[in-house]
Amino acid sequence: MEKEIQDLEWERHNMEMNDKKNTGLTVKTLGGFSIQGMGGHLKEDGIRSEMLIKLMAYIFCHHTQEMTVQELTDVLWTEEGSDNPAGALKNLMYRLRLLLKKTWGPHDFILTGQGAYSWNKEIPLDIDAEDFDKGCKQASREQDTNQKIEDLKQALSYYQGTFLPKFSSEYWIMALSTYYQGTYLSAVKTLADLLGKEQRYKEMARWCTVALQYEPLDEDIHTDLIKALIGQNKLKMAMDHYKETEALLYENLGVAPSDELRRTYEALLKETNSQQMDLKAIEEELTENNESGAFLCDFGVFKKTYNLEMRRAARLGLSVFVVLITVGPAGKMTVASPNYLEVINDGMDRLERVLLGCLRSGDVISRYSGAQFIILLPTCQYETTKMVIQRIEDNFYETGDKQIPKVKLHYSLDEMDEK
């Protein structure tokens, strides 16, 4: 829904621009490629030649300068090359002029110079990427908070996705895409911070939600969204989003939540617990879904449990062991291998099932990283701990591929020591 609203804003912007200057063209490059204005409209899927699109896009993005024949041939034929690049460019330029003439009539859009081409500066161009970049720079110079917020919102409304996404492998497009992507992330985070300080949490949540459609793995934006939900007292939604984010980071990046995200989660836990004052209701909630077997929890909860067990062990003279189990590739696979994360994730899923199935109900488990589980074994002696580890290993390898195991377990253990 948020994306649809932003698309409507973009269409309204285009109509306003066309009303104001019917002698120019409005070019969309962020999230796709299209041109409209002067009574005509060209969309990416309506242009059958990728080479024509790449030539048009390059000319639009360099419309303030002359482009030499050598420059254009280097851009267009980087891999396959051409026996006669100058002739191929001349033919492609003829086809482009024909396409523009067919859509907009006999205007001199592209001028020919001495060994170079240039865009006709008498025909104005309004390019979304340029407007986006100018808007972000203007916002960065603004000192007034409210005006800065409005400038950022205006600039961000131009961003509809990555720069020319269908041609992201082209080296010049890749460089600009990285630049605009970084600019977008910086602007969104600045806007979220300003809106949070102004306690405008609903707006903060809206912009974070839109940003996550483009950058689903950015942990800072997930953290900002959780803060915005907490600010609106939408605690269950905040808790659900934290759990989804934690799973997303493990599955796609193989990393644990950052310290900032964990601190936000701990603040959420405090806020959630402070809302319920009826003891009976709390007891019912505590016993709800009380399952047997080991307790699997977030690392933030694990740390609190660890501290409680450390105090209890010191008071009662009990021994408690902590075990760290790491899942690694069985062969010579490296982190850079294309299927490394898939193999590790499969191993971690298998290990989780084994741990839940063969540990005691008082034992506590948490994912410490994308390839590690940490386990708390209360009232457990050293020899017993070794037996537990052996049982985990036996069960783990029995459930896997016995002929060619893809992963192997490494472990270390230590007795809890009160500092």
Question: Which helices and strands occur, and which strands form pairs?
Answer:
Elements: H1 2-20, E1 25-28, E2 34-37, E3 40-43, H2 50-61, E4 67-68, H3 69-76, H4 85-104, E5 110-112, E6 116-119, E7 125-127, H5 128-141, H6 145-156, H7 171-197, H8 201-214, H9 219-231, H10 235-253, H11 259-275, H12 279-287, E8 295-296, H13 299-316, E9 321-329, H14 340-358, E10 364-369, E11 372-377, H15 382-399, E12 407-415
Parallel strand pairs: 1-7, 8-10
Antiparallel strand pairs: 1-2, 2-3, 4-6, 5-6, 9-11, 9-12, 10-11
Helix pairs in contact: 2-4, 5-6, 6-7, 7-8, 7-9, 8-9, 9-10, 9-11, 10-11, 14-15
Would you write up a description of this structure?
By secondary structure, the chain is of the alpha+beta class. The chain folds into 2 domains: 1-215, Winged helix-like DNA-binding domain superfamily/Winged helix DNA-binding domain (Arc Repressor Mutant, subunit A, Orthogonal Bundle), CATH 1.10.10; 295-415, Alpha-Beta Plaits. It is built from 15 helices and 12 strands. The protein has helices at residues 2-20, 50-61, 69-76, 85-104, 128-141, 145-156, 171-197, 201-214, 219-231, 235-253, 259-275, 279-287, 299-316, 340-358, 382-399; strands at residues 25-28, 34-37, 40-43, 67-68, 110-112, 116-119, 125-127, 295-296, 321-329, 364-369, 372-377, 407-415. The strands form 3 sheets. Strands 8-10-11-9-12 form a 5-stranded mixed sheet, with helices on both faces. Strand 5 and strand 6 (116-119) form a beta hairpin. Helix 7 (171-197) runs antiparallel to helix 8, helix 7 packs parallel to helix 9 (219-231) and helix 14 (340-358) crosses helix 15 (382-399). It starts with a helix and ends with a strand. The relative contact order is 0.07.
